[in-house]
Structure formats: structure tokens, C-alpha cells
Amino acid sequence: MIEVKNLVKTYGTKRAVDGVSFTVRPGDILGFLGPNGAGKSTTMKMITGYIRPDAGTATVAGIDVAKDPVAVKARIGYLPESAPAYGEMTVLEFLDFIAEVRGYRASAERRARVERALARTHLEPVRRQAIETLSKGYKQRVGFAQALLHEPPCLVLDEPTDGLDPNQKNEVRALIKTMATDRAVILSTHILEEVDAICNRIILISNGRVVVDETPEAFHARRPGARLDTIFRELTNADA
Amino acid sequence: MSQISPVFKREFLGYFRSPVAYVFLIVFLVASVGLAFFVGGFFKANQASLQSFFVFHPWLYLFLIPAVGMRLWAEERRGGTIELLFTLPLTTLDAVLGKFFAAWAFLALALTLTFPLALTVGWLGQPDWGVIAAGYLGSALMAGAYLAICSLLSSLTKNQVIAFVLGVVVNLALVFLGWSVFNGLLSGFLPVNAVDFIANLGFIPHFDALSKGILDPRDFAYFGSVMALALTLNVVALER
Fold it and tell me: How many CA atoms within 13 Å lie on the side-chain side of A185?
């Protein structure tokens, strides 16, 4: 579903992403791990067509993002880091705008889509509130609602649980799980329990390179009995 | 191209979601009509025309249009929503045109709200309505040219103050090039042809012709070219 081959991105003299390759199939919930600055966000921005890679390709459903970015963007639901949204709009207005750009021009269909997204993310109580007045948890949910409004075959979520309280984290994880049944999901995080809780695959990147690509079970088996963060620290030590 | 309309709608209505629209409209009306009455000698001229109203527009726009244009892209960059916008299925050109036309429509609305002045002239005397219509058309076109430049400059920074200052400076340069006082200075040491050429690069000669009721295709071409050039560079700057 999502295929990434030898992606490279350089900022100035720093190689942020250095030949990253992997494939995500429908049903996969891929946990994208790595220290801050390892290249997680940059890789995701290249998959979603926000920035152009210096080399390598990213294809979604067989479409090269460099060749037909609009078609790829139509197939991806993307939650950027810290869930940006137009703060002066109400939740309803914002989702209505997203639905319209996503091509739901008939108002009945658009309303149905928006209502569905609101229900799935439990946003009904704040539907008429301006986004800038919402708490962090609600804002994050607005970002979610926006990403899954068009039921995309691919979801790319950049730190979806960042800054949420434990209850909200659990809720978001449950939501991702229900979404993932027949979709390809990539989520980045540096919270290791999260990977155990929802992911069925781990990719660990460090200094812009893929260090590990395996199941959580295999990852645990590297050091039986050890805590995840011990393994993490050993594998990414080069960064420190 | 069909993606222009949702962007347009969001942006245009966005002005009215904050006090910006009302503050701007009031300042615009007070300043434009006030200049005509108190500086331009609207009554003293004893003529049934809007000449004393239009003559100040190049100077008035110098401050008012950067105030509208500064937020177009700088705000998206600052708020991170630019990442959201450019991972939705639309092209950069769609977004640039949608935003530009929304801001232009807002300016056209401000200009339209000065119609009581035209009605007053019609009540007091027998104005040439063709000249008045041409004046409004010329003013709207000139506003579009100022705005396109401000949109371009706004895309270069995430700081709205910088976008505003750059907008004033660049537009000031283009006003000066065609300002008769400046041209008078130049003709002291430059041949007439050169001065004419420089004057034609500026806004005022083209606007003056229109506001006197002269519909010369070259003036339309001038404002059209300024907009096309600035918006093309705007797209390039955003895709960089």
C-alpha cells in the first residue's frame, strides 16, 4: 500500500533521512520509532507529499508521490505533528471545509461525512466551538477527525498521542486500532509502551537510517526480559 | 481548478470570523471618504465627479492592502496549517488563486461600500457614470496588483510584520516610479523617453487613465501582468 524506496533528504549539511526503505501493507499498524531528530517526521512529510525528497521514491497505492501528488494526497489521511487547524473556525466549519476539499460537494453527503467523523472522534459536545478555544485533547481529536473523514486507505499519524493525558491516550489508541483493520497505518511516536499497545510492526530509525524493521515480539526477543527502553537506548546510542 | 472554490470560501469567510473585517472596512471607508472630503476638496471642486476620491487611492492602498495581504501565507506558516493545506488534494496554484481571489473580493467589497459617495454626486449634479464606473474598475484592478505583490511577499516569511513592511516598501517603490513629482525630478537629468519608460512601470499613470474614463487595453494588460507575475512567483516561492 505504502512503498518507500531509498528516500533521502538533506537539510544544509545534515542528512535528515538517509536511504530509508520499507513497505506497509493493509492491516499493518507500523510504529515508527526513533529519537527526536532521527528523521521520522521528515520521512512522513515526504510520503504525504508535503516536502520533496532529494532522492528515492514514495508510492501510495502504486502512485508515485512525485508524479501525481494530488492523487496520493487524496488517498492519505494525514495528522501532522501537533495537529494544526484553523483556530478561528469552529470544529464544524473546519471539518466542512476539509470535506469540501476532499471532494464531497453535495451538501447532504458532506454533512453525513462530517457527522460520521464527529461521532467517531467524540467531538459532538464541542462541534460549535472555535478550535482555538479547545483543550489539547480535543484539538488532537479534531486533527484525527480531519484525517479519517474520507476513510482513506492509508493513515499517516505524526505523534498522535503527544501531549494527551493517559485516558485520552487510551482512547486514541483504541480509535487507531478500530481504524486499522483494512488500512495501512504509520504512526510515529517516542512512547515505547504505545508500540506494545497497538503496533504489529516496528521500524526504528536513527540518524536517518532504518536500524530495525520487525514485529514487536522479535524486538522484545533481542534482549529477553529487558525493558523496551533499554533495547531502544542500545540501538540508538550512536545519536547521543 | 475546481479546488479553488473551497479555499476561496474558507478564506473569504475567515475575514468575518474575527474583528479584522469590520475594523478594516470601517478604516477603509473613513479614510477614503475622509481624504476626498477634507484633503481632496470634494465640495470645493464643485464638480460632479469622483476625481478627488480616486486620486488618493494609490496612497491609501499603500497601507491598507499590505494589512490585508500580510496574513495570507505568513499566518499559515506560523500556525503550521500550511502543512495541512498542502497535504490536501489540491495544487499550489489552486491554493494561491483561492486565497488571492478571496482577499481581492474582500477589497472589492470595501470599495463597493463607498457607493453612497457616487449616489451623492448623482444627487447633487449630473456626473458621467461611465467615468465613475471606469474609476471603480481601475481602482479594483490596482488593488489586485498591490494585493498580488503582498501575497507573494507574505509567502516568504512566517512573520506578518515583516510581510506588512515588505509589502509597503515594494508597493511604495511601484507608486514612486509613476508619481509625477518623482518623474519631474528624474526629467532633470534623464531623457524624456527614459522617464516615460520608468513612469509606465509604476501604478499611477495606468490608474490615472482609467479613473479619467480612458479604457486603454494597455492599462488592463499592465495590471494583469503585475498580478500574473507576482502570483506565478508566489507559486514558485511556495513550492521551493
Answer: 30
| Nearest to B145, CA basis, from B121, B188, B177 | B177
Size of interface A-B (CB pairs under 8 A): 59
Question: Domain of A164?
Answer: 2-210+217-228
The tally of domains found in chain B comes to: 1
Would you say residue A84 lies in a domain? yes
Chain A neighbours among B 90-149 (CB < 8 Å)?
A: 90-91
Which of A48, A78, A88 shows the shortest C-beta gap to B14? A88
Of A78, A85, A100, nearest to B81 by CB-CB distance is A85
Q: Does residue A168 form part of some domain?
A: yes
pLDDT along chain A (240 residues), means of 10: 93 90 92 88 94 94 94 96 93 96 94 94 93 92 93 93 84 84 88 83 90 86 78 70
B176 to chain A, minimum CA–CA distance in Å? 38
Asked if the C-beta of B80 comes within 8 angstroms of chain A's C-beta atoms, the answer is yes
Three-state SS letters, B161-212: HHHHHHHHHHHHHHHHHCCHHHHHHHCCCCCHHHHHHHHHHCHHHHHHHHHC
**Closest Cα to residue B121, out of B107, B141, B135?**
B135
A-chain CB neighbours of B81 within 8 Å are 84-86
For the stretch B72-86, pLDDT in tens is: 999 999 999 999 999
| A156 to chain B: closest CA residue | B87
The boundaries of the domain holding residue B143 are 4-239
B3-60 per-position pLDDT tens digit: 999 999 999 999 999 898 999 999 999 999 999 888 888 878 778 888 889 999 999 9
Number of domains in chain A: 1
* Residue A69 falls inside a structural domain: yes
- The residue of chain A with its CA nearest to that of B3 is A101
Question: Over the stretch B98-128, which tens digit does the pLDDT of each residue have?
Answer: 999 999 999 999 999 999 999 999 998 899 9
Cβ A70–B89 below 8 Å, yes or no?
Answer: yes
Q: CATH number, domain at A201?
A: 3.40.50.300
Burial class (CB within 10 angstroms; exposed 0-12, middle 13-18, buried 19+) of B84: buried
Say what the ipTM of the complex is: 0.92
Q: Does B86 touch chain A (CB under 8 A)?
A: yes
